[in-house]
Amino acid sequence: MAFEGLAGRLQNVFSKLKGKGKLTEDDVNEALREVRLALLEADVNFKVVKEFVSKVKERAIGQEVLQSFTPAMVVVDIVNKELTELMGGTQSKLARSNRPPTVIMMVGLQGAGKTTTAGKLARMLQQQNHRPLLVAGDIYRPAAIKQLQVLGEQLKVPVFAMGDQVSPVEIAKNALQHAKDNGNDYIIMDTAGRLHIDEALMDELKHIADAIKPDETLLVVDAMTGQEAVNVAESFHKQLALSGVVLTKLDSDTRGGAAISVKAVTGCPIKFAAMGEKMDALEPFHPDRMASRILGMGDMLTLIEKAQAGIDMDKAKEMERKMRTAEFTFDDFLEQMEQMKKLGPLDQILGMLPGAGKMKGMQDIKVDDKQMARVAAIVKSMTKEERQNPVLLNPSRRKRLAAGSGNSIQDVNRFIKQFDDMRKMMKQFSGMMGPKGAKGLKGLKGKLGKGMKFPFG
Predict the structure, then answer these.
(1) 402 in a structural domain
(2) Domain Signal recognition particle SRP54 helical bundle, which positions (predicted)?
(3) Is residue 19 marked as binding?
(4) Which residues contact 125 (CB under 8 A, 6 or more apart)?
């Protein structure tokens, strides 16, 4: 999960502070020493760490903090604001030309994920009712053009290609004219990468930029390379005047050094973060929301936006009614699984919930597509009556389900037991807002404390 190591360390530091009540200057200094170590271990640039800790210390040792009734919370708030500022302060939005098409040029080293990111960006623009055109400008990497064409077919986005015998500059010029002639309001130009930064690569990119005057020059870098990603961004920015950075594999980057350092070192904002391999796994980068996630405060705004984009609200209301009245069936469970898939991996969703990282049993929840397929196979092996009425599932029927779904009888029994527990848990969730809400929350906490798991978790 993104920032897992750093988030855990920082949350432990602030938990200790909260346990102290009143703070002394020594308490703050000790906490900031631990913060400094946590950031360095997360591969954050040394100069960035030094400046960050200095700014936090300057604000945290003031009398208004040390004499506050909740000094630890004030320190956490200072760290949150400084961390937000470090990563860019506010969201940096994609440029839009006054005279379409808006030209976006994707650059970066080989293997960073430029071509896939170009496809993800095209899908995002398409969902916003734009008409993007993907341009195959990498004529050197074997199958690069074909890869973009396959992505275009999947997304139903047009791809402009002229083969690998025409210069990228000519391809870029022709693509620009093609977009004007066909009403495409965005051009996303995929370019060649190298295994390292060299003069030939930079010269070609400069010539392409001179030919099409991009409104955005986005550098795609692998977040998992940490400080090296920052060094690459700095080198590209010096020669190409980047307008933004896209971090790929941020969902797998447990350290987070690149995300925290890149804006401070280069002055270049992070515009997007890829949070998975699927084509919809590209998110606008919000520094304030990312800082909240790191400090364990959650990211409810992103979660709400995902839900609004991916969930049928009428179905959701009907599902809520069924949960409240314990009418939730196996058919409803299948439908809920499909809705959850649209939101993204479960561990990412949990990371957006305030305090979820501290809830016992939550840190280790991993549900992959194979697990979900096994569960779906059990439900699909049931008759219509069995799906509606779990009470019918006697031992002989469960044996039939195991044979029909390719699972063991133990798997089937465990799933049915967990389904029943889940149904009870959902009913408690729906009752939390009423007068007996505290009691429901206490019961739920007890179940989680006993290690309640999701099916096959």
Answers:
(1) yes
(2) 2-87
(3) no
(4) 132, 186, 188
Residues 147 and 206 grouped into a single domain: yes
In this structure, the answer to whether residues 378 and 346 fall within a common structural domain is: yes
Which one of 297, 315, 344 terminates a domain? 297
**Which 8-state DSSP code applies to residue 167?**
-
175 is in an annotated binding site: no
Q: Are residues 122 and 263 in the same domain?
A: yes
Q: Are 320 and 440 within one domain?
A: yes
| Mean pLDDT, range 174-187, rounded to an integer | 94
The verdict on whether residue 113 carries a ligand-binding annotation is yes
Annotated binding residue 183: no
The pLDDT confidence band at residue 217, using thresholds 50, 70 and 90, is: very high
Report the DSSP pairing between strands 216-222 and 270-274.
Answer: unpaired
Please report the pLDDT score of residue 446 as a whole number: 47
Residues 260 and 155 in one domain: yes
Are residues 314 and 267 both part of a single domain? no
Q: DSSP letters along 334-396, please? A: HHHHHHHHHH--HHHHHHTSTTGGGSTTTTT----HHHHHHHHHHHHTS-HHHHH-GGG--HH
Name the residue type at position 131.
R
Same domain, 154 and 268: yes
Q: Is 250 annotated as a binding residue?
A: yes
Q: Does 164 count as an annotated binding residue?
A: no
Task: Please give the Cα distance from 116 to 407 (Å, whole number).
Answer: 36
Give how far the C-alpha of residue 95 lies from the chain's centroid of Cα atoms, to the nearest Å: 22
Average pLDDT, the chain: 79
Residue at which a domain ends, from 274, 297, 320: 297
Q: What is the mean pLDDT of residues 143-165?
A: 92
Domain count, the chain: 3
Closest CA to 66 of 101, 37, 108, 31: 31
Q: Is 104 left (phi over 0), alpha (psi -120 to 50) or beta?
A: beta
CA 331/CA 386 separation, integer angstroms: 10
Annotation-wise, does 93 bind a ligand?
A: no
Note whether 382 and 327 are within 8 A (CB). no
Per-residue model confidence as pLDDT tens digits over 371-420: 778 888 998 999 989 988 888 999 999 999 999 989 899 989 988 888 88
CA distance 164 to 145: 8
